[in-house]
Amino acid sequence: MDVLHDRVAAVLAGAAVGDALGGATEGWTPEQIEERHGGRVEGIVGPFLPDWRTARPIAPYHKGDGHVTDDTLMTHALIEVYAKQRRHLDAYDVAR
């Protein structure tokens, strides 16, 4: 890989790690975070609900435990589309 590819891979990996670490508290106020976690979150936290595997709908409840959110999944999908096109990405590319 060349330097640009290395940097792109590093940025995407960093974004996924940040998403996984921050997903458990996304949209929460500092007060809500402190109440739920007893202070600042400084690492991976457990799922929102202990029974997240059977909770429905699953998406709002499976944040935490080091899992990426839909943000990373959408980024991955866009990269896949763009990499296959090797040209300007437009709405039609995303739809395909």
TrEMBL record:
SUPFAM superfamilies: ADP-ribosylglycohydrolase
Taxonomic superkingdom: Bacteria
The protein's name in its UniProt record: ADP-ribosylglycohydrolase
